[in-house]
C-alpha cells in the first residue's frame, strides 16, 4: 500500500531535489522516500539529546533579551567566544 503526502519546501530545496533526481536518474518520490527512511533510522539510533534541531524557536521574551544583549556594549563571555571559534587572537 502506498500513501501520498504533501509538504511545502523552499525554492532552494526544490532546486536541489530536481538537480539530484536529474543527475542520478531517480524519481522525486524515490528520493523523498529514501531521505525519510534515512532520517527516521538516524532518529531511532542517535540519542535524542545529540540531535540538533534544524530550527531554533524563541519566545517573544527571549528575543527581547537577545536584542537587548546585542544592543549593549557588554563584551561576549569566554564561553560564547569559544563557541564562535574566537579565541581572541
Summarize the structure.
The chain is mainly α and 89 residues long. The protein has four helices and no strands.
Explain the overall architecture.
It is a single chain. This protein has helices at 11-24, 28-45, 60-71, 78-83. It has 89 residues and is mainly alpha-helical. It has one domain (11-83). The protein is elongated, with a radius of gyration of 20 Å.
Notable traits:
89 residues, mainly alpha, single chain
- Overall pLDDT score: 90
**Count of helix runs:** 4
Give helix and strand order, one letter per element, not per position: HHHH
Uncertain stretches? none
Number of domains: 1
Main sheet summary: none
The radius of gyration computed from the alpha-carbon positions, rounded to a whole number of angstroms, is 20 Å
Number of strands: 0
How widely separated are the two ends? 60 Å
**Share of helical residues:** 55-70%
Approximately what portion of the residues adopt beta-strand conformation? under 5%
| Overall form | elongated
SS-based class: mainly alpha
